[in-house]
Amino acid sequence: MQRIGGREPLRGDLGELYDAIEQPRKIRGELPILKADEVRPYMEQVRERTLEVLGEIELDPGDPVLADGFVYEMLLAHEHQHNETMLQLLQMVGAYEPVEVDRAPAAEPAAEGPEMVMVEGGSHEIGAPAVGFAYDNERPRHPVELAPFWIDRTPVTNADYIAYLEDTGAEPPMYWERDGESGWVRAAMGRTEEVDPTHPVIHVSWHQADAFARWAGKRLPTEPEWEAAARGASRERANLDQFSFGTAPAGAYADGASDWGAVQMLGDVWEWTSSDFTAHPGFEAFPYPEYSEVFFGDTYKVLRGGAWATRRDVIRTSFRNWDLAERRQIFAGIRCARDESEGSSES
Description:
- By secondary structure, the protein is an alpha+beta fold.
- Helix content is 23%, strand content 15%.
- A four-stranded mixed β-sheet has the order 10-9-8-11. A three-stranded antiparallel β-sheet has the order 1-4-12, covered by helices on one side. It has a three-stranded antiparallel β-sheet with strand order 5-6-7, with no helix packed on it.
- A hairpin with a 3-residue loop joins strand 5 and strand 6.
- It starts with a helix and ends in an 8-residue tail after the last strand.
């Protein structure tokens, strides 16, 4: 935005403090960042100036940052993604009271179906198409050859995860606490509630997800498998946009299922894959290398599908999220896969 508008920063001294690349998370709490009474007017000034610049510029098709309004969508997407990040923090506030709540998206009834659905093998197109907004790490769209595989029809439920805990003594999801000898409650977002066995498990790390999948005799899907299985899933029929403040029952939104019959591929919980965050073949950094390229490698694992806290206009079946394998505060859950040779969905 600074380059497009040709303006000097309002507060040049703040640029380094708010630079996520220069300031790793572990030290951000020690930085002299603006306090609430300072940050609100500064934020309003930045917003007004941003709108001024956006109102003045021409969408020059010769400039890829401006062509088709890319800069508009990028700014909105970034702000909406930060909405979800802030909700991760608000979960830790014991007396948090949401300004607005709409429980309807989480109250959709669950539909019955098989444990797993089959995704046919062969060539599958992965990645975002050339037309329309997407981040650089989603492109280019390319074919991948996949063997046929089974994938869970729904996300893994709390009931399934409790059975795993009882059998293994593993660590529970973040925010879970014991309620007596056998029960569980979840304390987050200013509320303490019984863990609903019918809902997807949430706030598990990649390590926990991987361990559960192996205990269940399955595995986590690869990233290409996940995207192939999600083809046709509808974000219009999904628990997204934050105001539900919780998940819908596993099996809800069956009318928004993927082409293969998998439900809730979008919304409710992010789903860990087995894949490291790496570049698609032919990747080109845009509009700056720091958005994706600096994170490629074996440090971060890929999550897919969005969660109840994800804004609807951010998520799509090609959207790639990534995080450290130990992270649990993110709204992450599990969906397992299994090779075709390992048996049917009813086994």
